[in-house]
Amino acid sequence: MVRKNASTMNRSDLIRLLAEKNPRMDSKTLERYVDVVFEAISEALVENRRVEIRGFGSFWTKERSERISRNPRSGESVFVAAKRVPAFRPGRQLRRELVEAGGAGSRRRASALDPRDGT
C-alpha cells in the first residue's frame, strides 16, 4: 500500500501503486518495467536526447556555463566548472491537473500557464 500523507513518492511506492492497480502482475515484473523506463530516460539524457511523454512532460539537458560562485560558509570565491544538468517541463495535461487540484500555480488561470493553450 502507498504511504498515506507522505509528501514524497519514491521508487518503491511507485512499484507498490502499480501492483495495486495491476493485481494480476508479479511485483518483480513491475519492478523491472519501472527500471526499464528509468534506464531509457537516463540513457537518452546521457546521449543528449530529449524525452517527451505526451501529457506528462519533457526531459532534456541544459548546459550550465562555468562561473565564479561563493562558498556560503567562508565567503571565499569558488570556480564552478561548466556542466550539463537535467531539466523537466510538465506537459499541458499535468499542469491542468495541478491547477485543478490546487497545486503549484493554482492562483493563476490555467491558460496563463501556457500561452499556446487557448482554454
Structural description of this entry:
The structure is a single chain. Helix 1 (11-21) packs across helix 2. This protein has helices at residues 11-21, 27-46, 92-100, 110-113; strands at residues 51-53, 57-64, 67-70, 77-80, 83-90. It is an alpha+beta fold and 119 residues long. Strand 1 and strand 2 (57-64) form a beta hairpin. The longest helix has 20 residues, at 27-46. It contains four helices and five strands; from the N terminus they run ααβββββαα. The strands form two sheets. A three-stranded antiparallel sheet has the order 1-2-5. A two-stranded antiparallel sheet has the order 3-4. It has a domain at 9-49. 37% of the residues lie in helices and 23% in strands. It is elongated.
Q: Could you spell the SSE succession in H and E letters?
A: HHEEEEEHH
Using DSSP, what is the number of strands? Answer: 5
- Strand residue content: 15-25%
Structural Rg = 19 Å
Average pLDDT, all residues: 87
* Spans where pLDDT lies below 50 across 5 or more residues: none
Layout: helices, strands, pairs:
Blueprint: H1 11-21, H2 27-46, E1 51-53, E2 57-64, E3 67-70, E4 77-80, E5 83-90, H3 92-100, H4 110-113
Antiparallel strand pairs: 1-2, 2-5, 3-4
Q: What keyword list fits this structure?
A:
single chain; 119 residues; alpha+beta; two-stranded antiparallel ribbon; 4 helices; 5 strands; elongated
Produce a short descriptive summary:
With 119 residues, this protein is α+β, with helices and mostly antiparallel strands. It has a domain of 41 residues.
